[in-house]
């Protein structure tokens, strides 16, 4: 980003939501800059098989790369940088990154979330993810573990819900607490018992990737699973929104209206940073809605005639 470069819209985040919005905005003939730190959660997906239009599946990196190429083809700029802070300056916003600053009439935050990981080193984590032995989204790929042995790392409400959801795909589900004894209510234990979910106390540690899946050590010794799902929550990247005074949910998700407007005029949000279904298709839909809203809101201030 050049110092004080001007544009119509700056999009923070280059995942499915941000890039969909960039494609729309560029085709609306709006000067659009996407600032992307290069850590889209979508790019960590080894192969998504439930994204419409790709019967054989598509890797996250290929999907994001194609969307980025499409946005650039229509005139959007994509800058690799991290927006460290943002401020209001009159009717504009100024985004500051290590490579400079950019001034925009409107801002779309598509900053996403980061999944909390189990106690596993980065190299093994990535290898297990690529092999399908470690998975984060049962909605996305629960089908792939149909009738296989599945482990879930977690407890309490989140772990219970994920175990019961995955029970719809396989009869062999084990819920392993991450750090020690399970923290479950009597009602949760009853529901899990009725569903046939096995409970194992933690800590879950000493992970190894085997030919048949992922193994770990817990209170009952060594356990092996075809796939393991961490149910440990996530970190919502809503710091920029909160710094500008935008309203957020208790968990940190940015609150928006039905057209992706935040509580701050000119500031919009889409994708996983907003409360909703963490799915590529959902993020893309919100990106399209946000872009169209931004175009129409800007046209109310200044007509966009050719």
Short characterization:
The chain contains eight helices and 16 strands. The protein has helices at 16-27, 60-73, 122-131, 138-141, 156-166, 186-195, 239-243, 280-301; strands at 5-12, 32-36, 77-80, 83-89, 92-97, 100-109, 113-115, 150-153, 173-176, 198-200, 205-210, 213-218, 221-225, 227-230, 234-236, 267-269. The strands form four sheets. Strands 1, 2, 3, 4, 5, 6 and 16 form a seven-stranded mixed beta sheet that branches. Strands 10-9-8-14 form a four-stranded parallel beta sheet, with helices on one face. Strands 11-12-13 form a three-stranded antiparallel beta sheet, covered by helices on one side.
**Main sheet: strands, sense, barrel:** 7 strands, mixed
Helix proportion range = 25-40%
In total, the number of strands is 16
Series of secondary-structure elements, N-terminal to C-terminal: EHEHEEEEEHHEHEHEEEEEEHEH
Class by alpha and beta content: alpha/beta
**What is the average of the pLDDT values?**
96
Ends: how far apart? 27 Å
Strand content: 25-35%
Radius of gyration: 21 Å
Q: Tell me, what's the shape? A: elongated
List the total number of helices: 8
Low-confidence stretches: none
């Amino acid at each position: 980003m050049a110092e004080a470069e001007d544009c119509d819209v700056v999009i923070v985040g280059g995942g499915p939501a941000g890039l969909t919005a960039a494609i729309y905005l560029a085709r609306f003939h709006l000067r659009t800059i996407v600032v992307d730190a290069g850590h889209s959660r979508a790019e960590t997906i080894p192969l998504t098989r439930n994204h419409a239009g790709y019967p054989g599946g598509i890797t996250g990196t290929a999907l994001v790369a194609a969307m980025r190429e499409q946005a650039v083809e229509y005139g959007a700029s994509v800058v690799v940088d991290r927006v460290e802070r943002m401020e209001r300056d009159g009717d504009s916003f100024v985004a500051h990154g290590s490579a400079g600053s950019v001034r925009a009439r409107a801002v779309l935050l598509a900053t996403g979330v980061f999944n909390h990981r189990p106690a596993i080193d980065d190299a093994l984590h990535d290898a297990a993810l690529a092999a399908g032995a470690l998975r984060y989204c049962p909605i996305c790929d629960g089908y792939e573990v149909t009738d296989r042995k599945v482990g879930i790392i977690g407890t309490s409400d989140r772990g219970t819900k994920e175990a019961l959801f995955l029970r719809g795909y396989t009869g062999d589900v084990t819920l392993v607490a991450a750090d020690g004894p399970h923290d479950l209510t009597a009602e949760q234990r009853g529901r899990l018992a009725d569903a046939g979910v096995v409970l194992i106390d933690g800590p879950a540690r000493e992970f190894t990737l085997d030919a048949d899946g992922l193994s770990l050590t817990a209170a009952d010794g060594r356990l092996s699973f075809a796939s393991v799902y961490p149910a440990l929550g996530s970190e919502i990247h809503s710091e920029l929104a909160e710094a500008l005074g935008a309203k957020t949910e208790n968990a940190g998700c940015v609150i928006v209206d039905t057209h992706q407007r935040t509580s701050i005029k000119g500031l919009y949000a889409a994708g996983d940073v907003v409360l909703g279904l963490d799915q590529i298709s959902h993020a893309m839909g919100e990106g399209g809605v946000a872009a169209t809203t931004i175009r129409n809101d800007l046209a109310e201030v200044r007509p966009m005639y050719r």
